[in-house]
Each structure stands twice: as structure tokens, then as C-alpha cells.
Amino acid sequence: MLRLPGFQLHRPATLQEATQLLADLGPEAVPVAGGTDLYPKMKRRQILPKHLVSLRRIPELHGFRGDPQAGLVIGAGCTLAEIAAHPMVRVGYPGLAQAVAVCSNPLLHQMGTLGGNLCLDTRCSYYDQTDLWREALGWCMKAPGKADPAQVPCRVAPGGGRCWAVFSSDGAPILIALGARVRLVGSTGERIVPLEELYRDDGIHYLNKAHDELVAEVLLPPANGVRSTYRKVRRRGSLDFAALGVAVALRLGADGVVQRCRIVLGGVASRPLVLEEAAGLLVGQRVEPQVLERVAEAVYRAVHPMDNVDFTVYYRRRIAPVQVRRALEALAA
Amino acid sequence: MAVVKEREEVLEVVGQRLPRVDGWAKVMGRAQYVDDLSLPGMLFGKLARSTQAHARIREVRVQRALELPGVVAVITGKDLPIRYGVFPVGQDETALAVDKVRYVGEPVAAVAAVDPYTAEEAARLIEVDYEPLPARMSLEEALAHPEPRIHDYGPFGNVHRQASLEFGDVERGFAEADYVREDLFYYEGSTHAPMEPHSALAWWDPGAKKLTLWTSHQGPHYLHKGLAKALQLEEHQVRVIVPAVGGGFGGKLDIFHHEVCAAKLSMLTGRPVKITLTREEVFYAHRGRHPELLRIRTGVTQDGRITAMHVEAYLDGGAYCSFGPATLLYAGTQQPVSYRIPHYRFQGVRVFTNKPPCGPKRGHGTPQVRCALEVHLDKLAEDLGLDPVELRLRNLTGPNEITVNWLEITSNGLRECIEKVVEASGWSRRRGRLPYGRGIGFAASAYLTGAGGSIYFSDMPHSEVHLRVDRTGVVTVYTLATEIGQGSATAIATIVAEVLGLKPQDISLVTSDTDLTPIDLGSYSSRVTLMVGNAAYDAACRVRDLLLEAVAERLQIPRHRLICRNRRIYDEENPEVGASFAQAASWAEAKFGCLATSGSYRPPEKLGTYKGSGVGPSPTYTFSACVAEVRCDPETGEVKVERVWVAHDIGRALNPILAEGQVEGSVHMAVGEALLEEQAFRKHLHRGPSLLDYKIPTVHEMPEVITLFVNTEDPRAPFSAKEVGQGPLLCVVPAILNAIADALKIRVDEVPVTPEKILKALEERRKGRPARVGPTKVPSFSFPAPERVARPPQWELEAKPA
């Protein structure tokens, strides 16, 4: 068994207290909710925080408000199991219920939270390894270990000058497709931003938020006839992270014409990939084979995965248009 | 040796669906595994491991580790310089690397500390100064670059062992053929991944000068000998105890670094030392399936009768010998057991590479070539316009035959196995007729029930049992046979209970303790039920004789009328007259004194006399046939195995629940090897030594399994019970591959068959090229001229033209 390294645990009772702790303790403090991603990473010595700020005792982070007619607000501390089972989510935002239900495995749904899923660390087959393995590799840019950080390249694309670790949350793509916003609370104030603006295209600095800011709530717009679905490509029917996640939200008119469409991919870049061109091809059209073919081509052009998660680059690129098409067909049916 | 006994028709517990004797403890979490054990003053050990795949060690610096508070001892290769190995011809390992490391993860130092955190931290503080050498990460690379050598032994370069045998006259056989086909196949390596990681707890008693090692192991006897050698102790100074084991599959048979190091650290500190491997370390301990490249050429007559076969096997052995010499030879042995091959040549080579050592994994050495052969026969059938099942049926071996390579088949239910799966699966009306994307495939296989030869040469028994009965009616069986989850304890208890008229749970078992129990060679090669079973049967019959004699005398009933049943010994003609088992035992104790009997088992002499003939013989063989049904997605390349029918000639199932469990476990492992699992490397590193990255099938990937047993009479097996732990794996992998070929009309001649490979094969077809993915050449390598072995006499008679 890998051993958890030592740390000091803080258990604030309010959001204000939690954000103040993060502000005071600085970068050596890391927030933890379910811990399903963080603790294994600490055991592998990828991250060695001195302080953990637990969010589990903060009532403000829990619970559901509103409804699909007015818009649903989900506390970031809700577990994936709660969300997957919630009747309002299942009826109003079925794509979200599908996405959280295929996260990891049923055991981790009991601990993993929505906020944790949205802030999931980026993944890479050169990074998600033990320190022995990474030392044998010679470390990498995201976790330079014993090496001089300035001298360690990204192992995926050594000349690129950036980290290519992949964002593989299942929750984020579907929430972006649904037009969700998040309420970020920091020690000095709070703000509400569209979820897609939380992410940056950088494997190391992948979140656009201050160190002391926490994702407190997810605000879903009124469902308003929007259909949604999520498809996940992974090697096995459980456990595995997305090698490709396809989230589609779509509203059809009575005539079958697409009024609104958003397509977002996970698992292919350092942030959720919003496919605007592909989605735009659908608006004003019926979901028909000729349109789908053009959409598929646009998807293929937009997807450029790197060889750093499961499945070959070739395969993930080939499969993205197929999965987008299947998602659209399922929603239009 | 056991004989079929008179009461066989009225078996009471054999064949019943009874719970396993260790089931309750395991299900309730009460079973004690090594890591559950703890001794007063116990220290925790940790191995520091190489970060280099191939390098000379200039210096190992341990000072910083020693200075860490809580660290009690640190050892390096200098402290354990003796080379050892499980094979007499393969003494090429040391517990800690001495002057060279040969794979990433190879242990270079070991620490003992007061808690596991300190031990882990101390291992990190060990500094090694390496002089890197070029690493050879594939058999092609290792053959192409003979220098610098990975080892300084072996015939040349990085070649570890070669084999080259010919039975009959293969060129003549090919000349007699109407059609000859040749195929290449690549079988990727895989690992056992037992649920329980390896763990060892060592305690050196300085007063008695005796080492006790509790360890999660499948072969305590070989380990006992290996430990004594590595630690320079007399064998009687070593005691090995195996508590509950959470799976082995061949991965717990070698003498492992952590076992030797825990022992050495205990000897140095005078305190007990425990080392439990992490999951990553289990991937480095490995000893799993050899990656193997195969070339098979077969000649057939127009009507599909095999005239000759030539098998070439290229094994990637990893960094050390392990069981490699046997793995290499096993690759050649089993083809003639399932099919009559009049002229047969086997050539194989095992190569060293800079990866964790390969060794025995379920099916040891035979699944790779079996898969290649069954895929090859499918293609051959297609070329001939024959149903693939029909081609097999025309070439089957039968009962009581000697194969061309001198293996003696006794019972043989292969034909019935084939008939059963063909019938149950609806083969004849479905094969080739399912819609595109769906398919069914067939394969057959054979396996041994226990290796006929031991690892070291000896004329002593392979299995021994002591049995004790006392006046209270307690029956205790003592044997080194090791329960690794396969059900050996239940099998032995069932046999003894059947003989004595008791229930399996009435039997106390003292197992796997080299001080208390007589020798058994280990839980490998599917040998325990047959060999320990026969020894236990003998011991039980002997004690039954004593009991019957005592009861006959007390009750004045002719002995031949007495029967042991339902925990009583009574007059068969007058069932009310008799005694309880305990009463009978007390009468017997009064008459004979302390009641203790023994039994032993030695396999029959092998028939072959050629070099290498020691690998392959078995008291009896099992046979299996499989039909697999798959659903493939031609757009994504995804494959779902929906249903698997396995028929297995088991002789007789001692306990059908356990036997079915073995078949289902085999199917699970086969699905993993066919579609998902690979012990693969990128650069010099394992691609993902974790259970997240190493893709064992989950319940979602598990097909429905229909298990069909075929019963045969076999006087060599106790109650005719042949093996079931390994054989049913073999035919499942190729059946899945043949089903995929039926579904998509493509061939992926390489496992695992991933979605990527399927899309590639489909793309080849779209481009007008052969719809195949797989190896296209073998490395340039010249095998030595084959040793020509005369065939058994009956082959010469049959070979004459009609």
C-alpha cells in the first residue's frame, strides 16, 4: 500500500473561514472535498501540500435549490451519487445525470463531489505515476520532483514549452454544454462566471481562479426544452477516466430544426474543448445525415489529442466525430 | 497410486455442491493474510529500487537512510551476494542487485524501520550512482544487439535458452501435404495481478538459530530451499509458513527479493521484519506471461488431415531466468496432445530483455502458442472450405494414446467437449450467418494435470500427506499443499471425507508449514488435486482399514460388510448395527495405539528420453473446447464478448461450485488477455504499473459463461478428478479472436485485440489491402539443427500407406 504523506488537516465550518485559511496559508494549502483524486495523487507524491482544508463540514456547499423551470442550483459539495440520483437532475438535465453516473466507479460516487470534479487535476500518463516511476523517467514539467524545474521539459511534447496534461472531468463538459455558471467565493468577495471561463489551456495552470477562491455552487439555467446527453470513451465500463468525453446540449423546434446547440469535449485538451464551429453548423438545420457529415468533419478538424492518456492519438481523433454524431442522433431521435 | 474403488457409485460428498471449507472465514474477513499478521517488536521493511533499466552500479550510498530516526538497518547487494533461482539451471538472481541492475524496479537496497512511513522515507534516501548501459526493451532489440550482454551466461548474446526438437520427419510430412499454410502471431505479455499483493514476515530466533517466514506464496517447498541457499543457512534452519493467500496464478512461485530481504533484516536486527509490496512493486515482481512471437506452419491433406507441423516460438523473457527454461519447452508440448500430428518440429528461443522477469502464469507457456495455433487452424479451415470445427474433429487425439512427442494420454474427452459446445451454442446454424458485427468463434485446447517432473531431479514423491485420527473423532490432514484460493483445501477435505464417510467440514487441515507438514511441491501446473489428492486418498484408505478392522472385531461383523457413511461405520446389511465415527476411532486407538497414517504420490515415469522430455509429461491431461460470441462495433472498434460456452473434460468435479468458479475465473482472465491487458513498456518504463492503467476486465466486460463439464473415467486421478484451474483459459482467448474474425471479416493476429487494432484492420481492407493487423516477420535468428527424436512405435505403424 502506498502511504499518505503527512499534512495538517483544517476543518472550517463556513466558507468564509475556509477561504480565509486558504488565503492565510498560501500555496502550501490545498482544499479537499471527497479526496478521491487528491489522496491518490498525494500517495504518489505528485502533490505534497502541508495543509489540507477540508470542505466537508461546510453546510453552505451542500444541497439543491430551485428547479428545472427556474434553473437549478447545485451545491459544489453535493456528491456525484446525490446528483446522479436527484429527480430534478434526471428529468431536467439528463446529460448531467449520465455524466456523473459514469465518473470512475460507484464507490467513489459516494465521496466524490461536483466541485471536486470540476476542479479535477489534469491527467497525463507521464504524471499520474509514483515518484519512483517519475524519477526513473527523469520527472516532468508538471511535477519536477528532485530536478531543476527550469530544465525539465514536458515529456509529451518536449519542445513545446508548455504542459499538455489533459482535463478529463466528466462533469465539466456537460455543464458547459448546458450553459452552467459557477459561483466562486474567495476571502475578499465572490463572483459568478460562465463555467467555461474557469478553465485555461495549460496543463499546470488549468484553472482561472485565485488560490483562495472556491467553487461554491453550480448554477444551471432553466432547462427550457434543452435535451442533453453525455458519452464517454474509456477502455472499460467502469473505473477509467475519459479518453474522450462528448457532451451535447440541444434544443429542437417543433419542426425538428435545431434552435440551439452546444458541443463540448473532455479528455482531449488541457481544458474542456468547446466546438463552436461544429455546433454552429447545426443551428437552423434538421439533424440529418448530410448535416451530420459536415459536423463530423468539423469535429475531426478541431480535435488534436496528444499521446498522454489511454488509447492512441489516432484512435481518439478518429472516434471523436463518431461519438459526436451518435450523441446528436440520440438527442434528435 | 490410487485405484478406482468399489464404492464409487455411491459417492456421498464428491460431486456435491458444498460450500468451500475456507469460505466462511474469507467472506467474513476473518481469514488471516500475511499483512494481517504482526509480532511484538516488529519492524517494517522497504526495498529501494532501480530507476535504470540497465546500468552498472558504481556505488550505493546508505548513510542518509541510516541517519533517519527510526531506521534500524539498511542492507545492499554486498550483504546478500549469493545467487539463487527457482531453477537449478537458473541461479541468476540476487536479493539485491550486486553490480548491475537489469530493469527499472529491481531492488538495490532494503531498509528496516520502526514504522512503514519511516521505512518508505528511508528507501527514498538511498542514493545509487549508476553507469547507464543500453537497455533492450524487446526481443527484436535484444537479438539485434548482442552487446553489451544483459547476462554473462547463455549460449551467446542475449539468448538465454534455445530448444530445437523434431519428432518424425517434418520435411517428409510437408511433402505429403496437399496444402501448407504459415501464419505469424504475437501474444503480448500480461501479469497475474492477484488481489493480495505479495507480503512476507520474517522472524529469526537467535536462540534456536532458526528462521520462520510467513509469506504469501504458492510453492513453500522450493522457497524453503531457495531461502536456505540465499541466506547460507541449513535447510532445517528455515521454516516457511503460508497463511491465507489472496490469489497466485503463478505470480507467487519464485523466490522473491522481499522474502530474502525480510529474512536477512530480521537476522541482522534480531526483530521480526515485515515487507508488503505495493501494487506497483507487484508489477515489478511480475513473473508473468512471456510476450511471444510465433510462427506456425502446417501441412494438410485435401480432406483436412494434418501431415506435419512446425512451430517456432520467440520468447521475451525479461531480465532473469525464473521458470524460463520450462516456459520455453512448454510452448512446444501441448499441440500434439489435442491433435494428431504425424511429424512435428518445435524450435524456440528465450531472450533476455531489460524488463521485469517473465515466468509462469496460468497455463504456463502454453496459452500463447495455443492461441496462435487455434487462429491458424481457423484460417486453414477457411482455405480448405471446411467448417473450423470439422477440421479439428478430423485431427483429434483419442484416449490411451502416446503423442508424437511421447506424452501419454489416458482419458480424453475432447470430442465430447467439442460436441457439447457446438450443440449448446447453436454453432452449426449460426457460424458465418450472424449479421455483420456479430460473430462466433471456436477453439479447443489441452493441458496437463500436474507436471510429471519436479523442478530439481529426485526420485522422491511429489506429494505427501500425514493423517491423524484420535479417540474424539478428530481427523487432521497434514500437507504442505497450499491453498491460494483455487480450492485445494476443499478438494483434499472432500477426498478424505468421502473415504471416511464424513463431511468436508469435519476434516481439520494443517497446511503449508514446512516444519509441520510433509512435502508437497506446490500449487502450480494444476497438480494439487491429483497429486495431493492421491496421497490423501492413500492415507485415508489406510486409516479406514484400521477403523474397519477395529469395528469388525468389536461388533463381530465381517469386515467387508462394513461401510463408512454419514459419520458412522455400520453393517451394510443391517444399518442399525454400527458405531459413530468417534466410537470407531476410540476402538481403533485402543487396538492399534495412536492412529496416524501417511500417503505419498509419485507421478508415472515419463516415456520420452530426449533432451527436454521432462517438460510436458503429466499423469493425465484435460481437454477443453470453447465457443465465444461477440458483438463488435465496426465504427469504434469496440468488442463486447457476450457469451462464452466452455466445455471441459474434468474427469469428475469433486465440487462443481469450485470447478465452475475456476472456469469463470479462467474466462475472466482470458477476456483480459484477449482484449485488454498488456504488461507493456514505453521507453524503459512500464506503461502504467497500477490497477487503473493495467486494464483488468470489470464486471461490465465479463460475458455470460455457460460451463459444461465432460466426465471421463481416469484411474490416475482421485475419483477421476482432473484439473480445472488452467486448462479452460486456453481455448477462450483464440475463440474470442476467431469470433471477431467471424463478426468483421478481419484478422487481428495479436493480443490484446484493441479497438485501435480493429479500426486499423478495417482501414486496411478499405484500402484494398489484406484486412489484417499483426506481425509480418520474425527476427533473423538461426535455430540449432533439431534433435531428431524417433516417434513412438505405433506412429511408425500408422504412418505406412493404407
Strand order of the largest sheet of chain A: 4-5-8-6-7
Shape of chain A: globular
Q: Count of DSSP E strands of chain A? A: 12
The neighbouring-strand order within the major sheet of chain B is 3-5-1-12-9-10-11
Q: Strand fraction band of chain A? A: 15-25%
| Biggest pleated sheet of chain B | 7 strands, mixed
* Element order of chain A: H for helix, E for strand: EHEHEEEHHHHHHHEEEEEEEHHH
Give the % helix of chain B: 25-40%
What spatial form of chain B do the alpha-carbon principal axes imply?
globular
- The helix count of chain B comes to 22
Query: Termini of chain B, distance in Å?
Result: 40 Å
Description:
The complex is a heterodimer of chains A (333) and B (802). Chain A is α+β, with helices and mostly antiparallel strands. Helices cover 30% and strands 20% of the residues of chain A. Chain A has helices at residues 15-25, 38-43, 80-85, 87-92, 94-101, 106-109, 114-118, 131-137, 171-177, 276-280, 289-302, 313-332; strands at 8-10, 29-32, 51-54, 64-67, 71-75, 181-186, 189-194, 214-219, 227-233, 244-252, 258-266, 273-274. In chain A, the strands form 3 sheets. In chain A, strands 4-5-8-6-7 form a 5-stranded antiparallel sheet. A 4-stranded antiparallel sheet of chain A has the order 9-10-11-12, with helices on both faces. Chain B has 802 residues and is an alpha+beta fold. Chain B has 22 helices and 34 strands. In chain B, strands 3-5-1-12-9-10-11 form a 7-stranded mixed sheet, with helices on both faces. In chain B, strand 13 (292-300) and strand 14 form a beta hairpin. The longest helix of chain B is centred in the last third of the chain and has 28 residues, at 528-555. The interface between A and B is medium-sized, with 30 and 39 residues.
